[in-house]
């Protein structure tokens, strides 16, 4: 399947195959890609696998879906990758190219050395990465982790499938924060979970009294909450709320899956207190991934948990992960490369958010409202008047703004008048042009002048 790598998960192979088709398109014109059914037959994979690959490319802004027509290559996508970097050095994921280069450099050096003992290469790479992650999450003599308590998977989807099956939760009820990280929400859907959402108070924080009522009334097997930074809102959870949720969970036999996918993106740096500090470690799972920091070449996800059934379940699944890549990631963790690049990424993301917020105030005025995020890639924007969001998304297709309707971050009827905005363009001029299109789209759909 084209440029797929040994050990790739199924949808990653489809993803790499689609990348080769995108390269052929060369960004010269709207280029229609094969349909889901065509690719399913051609590559002998399920429709769900093809859909996962297309969803990832769509999230990256490299393809877009036209209703009843199919998927097309974005015309602003250059052959071989995401949009061109800005003259100032900005890009969609600013520090990612450097980290990917470092990853490949480590891999090449490791391949030349080949100075391992008799242990299988797969086993060596996995062991070293699990050791590095255990060291990273160990904080003290009373909060420590061992390598055997770290479990690896090709991506978040595969990770959640194994965890839910191991804990006999698959098909059951799970409670998530709202709005929920789209990656987690889609993975839960594919696992057939009944998803409930944590009630919110007037300030947008978790309503603890209503949460207690849900835990009492519903057969909730797992609560999924952010470690410290909620996405897409980019809001930090207060230490008081963390402590209250921890105390509440102590009254119920409910697993806590702490979502640590985005905690490194807090603009002020990762906070000292996390939700994990307030819960019974016997009921604690911590989920993370390398994709946000390193990029699409390292989609691997991991979970830390002490339950014996997890070890058995991951051993039985026996994921075939690229061993050199695992070992290269372990080296990057050990040398502090990921930590240093995360610092640069946080600084640039904060600058981007400040620019985006300033331009929104200038061009859209009172038509929208928002709170500046405290971390992450996304600005959570509320439209003050009801507007058909599909038209807004279509109007901004191909611009410097990646737009996702807020309703996609919920399986219930919530957040319908919100947009999740991500600036993926090349500079301030491209951002201003995109916001002008947004203002025009709002004017057209509201039936009155902007401003």
From TrEMBL:
<keyword id="KW-0804">Transcription</keyword>
<feature type="domain" description="HTH gntR-type">
    <location>
        <begin position="8"/>
        <end position="76"/>
    </location>
</feature>
<keyword id="KW-0032">Aminotransferase</keyword>
<keyword id="KW-0808">Transferase</keyword>
<dbReference type="Pfam" id="PF00155">
    <property type="entry name" value="Aminotran_1_2"/>
</dbReference>
<keyword id="KW-0238">DNA-binding</keyword>
<dbReference type="InterPro" id="IPR051446">
    <property type="entry name" value="HTH_trans_reg/aminotransferase"/>
</dbReference>
<dbReference type="InterPro" id="IPR015424">
    <property type="entry name" value="PyrdxlP-dep_Trfase"/>
</dbReference>
<comment type="similarity">
    <text>In the C-terminal section; belongs to the class-I pyridoxal-phosphate-dependent aminotransferase family.</text>
</comment>
<dbReference type="InterPro" id="IPR000524">
    <property type="entry name" value="Tscrpt_reg_HTH_GntR"/>
</dbReference>
<dbReference type="Pfam" id="PF00392">
    <property type="entry name" value="GntR"/>
</dbReference>
<keyword id="KW-0663">Pyridoxal phosphate</keyword>
<dbReference type="InterPro" id="IPR004839">
    <property type="entry name" value="Aminotransferase_I/II_large"/>
</dbReference>
<protein>
    <submittedName>
        <fullName>Aminotransferase class I/II-fold pyridoxal phosphate-dependent enzyme</fullName>
    </submittedName>
</protein>
<dbReference type="InterPro" id="IPR036390">
    <property type="entry name" value="WH_DNA-bd_sf"/>
</dbReference>
<dbReference type="InterPro" id="IPR036388">
    <property type="entry name" value="WH-like_DNA-bd_sf"/>
</dbReference>
<dbReference type="InterPro" id="IPR015421">
    <property type="entry name" value="PyrdxlP-dep_Trfase_major"/>
</dbReference>
<dbReference type="GO" id="GO:0008483">
    <property type="term" value="F:transaminase activity"/>
</dbReference>
<keyword id="KW-0805">Transcription regulation</keyword>
């Amino acid at each position: 399947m084209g440029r797929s790598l040994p050990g790739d998960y199924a949808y990653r192979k489809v993803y790499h195959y689609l990348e080769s088709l995108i390269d052929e398109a060369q960004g010269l014109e709207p280029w229609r890609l094969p349909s889901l059914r065509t690719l399913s037959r051609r590559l002998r994979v399920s429709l769900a696998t093809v859909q996962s690959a297309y969803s990832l490319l769509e999230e990256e802004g490299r393809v877009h879906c036209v209703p009843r027509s199919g998927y097309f290559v974005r015309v602003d996508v250059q052959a071989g990758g995401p949009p061109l970097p800005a003259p100032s050095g900005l890009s969609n994921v600013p520090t990612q190219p450097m980290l990917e280069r470092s990853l490949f450099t480590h891999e090449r050096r490791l391949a030349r050395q080949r100075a391992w003992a008799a242990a299988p290469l797969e086993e060596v790479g996995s062991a070293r990465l699990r050791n590095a992650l255990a060291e990273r999450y160990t904080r003290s003599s009373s909060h420590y982790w061992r390598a055997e308590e770290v479990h690896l998977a090709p991506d978040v989807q595969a990770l959640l499938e194994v965890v839910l099956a191991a804990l006999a939760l698959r098909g059951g009820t799970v409670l998530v924060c709202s709005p929920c990280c789209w990656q987690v929400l889609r993975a839960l859907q594919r696992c057939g979970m009944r998803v409930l959402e944590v009630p919110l108070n007037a300030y947008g924080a978790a309503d603890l009294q209503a949460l207690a009522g849900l835990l009492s009334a519903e057969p909730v097997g797992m609560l999924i909450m952010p470690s410290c930074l909620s996405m897409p809102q980019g809001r930090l959870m207060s230490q008081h709320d963390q402590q209250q949720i921890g105390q509440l969970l102590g009254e119920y036999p409910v697993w806590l899956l702490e979502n640590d996918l985005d905690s490194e993106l807090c603009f002020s740096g990762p906070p000292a207190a996390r939700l994990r500090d307030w819960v019974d470690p016997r009921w604690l799972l911590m989920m993370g991934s390398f994709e946000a920091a390193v990029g699409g070449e390292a989609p691997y996800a991991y979970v830390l948990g002490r339950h014996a059934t997890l070890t058995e379940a991951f051993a039985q699944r026996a994921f075939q992960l690229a061993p050199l890549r695992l070992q290269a990631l372990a080296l990057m963790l050990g040398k502090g490369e990921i930590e240093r690049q995360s610092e640069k990424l946080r600084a640039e993301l904060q600058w981007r958010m400040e620019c985006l917020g300033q331009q929104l105030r200038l061009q859209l005025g009172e038509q929208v409202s928002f709170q500046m995020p405290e971390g992450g890639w996304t600005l959570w924007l509320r439209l003050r008047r009801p507007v058909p969001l599909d038209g807004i998304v279509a109007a901004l297709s191909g611009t410097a703004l990646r737009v996702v309707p807020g309703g996609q971050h919920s399986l219930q009827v919530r957040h319908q008048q919100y947009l999740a905005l991500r600036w993926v363009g090349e500079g301030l001029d491209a951002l201003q042009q995109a916001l002008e299109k947004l203002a025009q789209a709002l004017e057209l759909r509201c039936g009155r002048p902007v401003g």
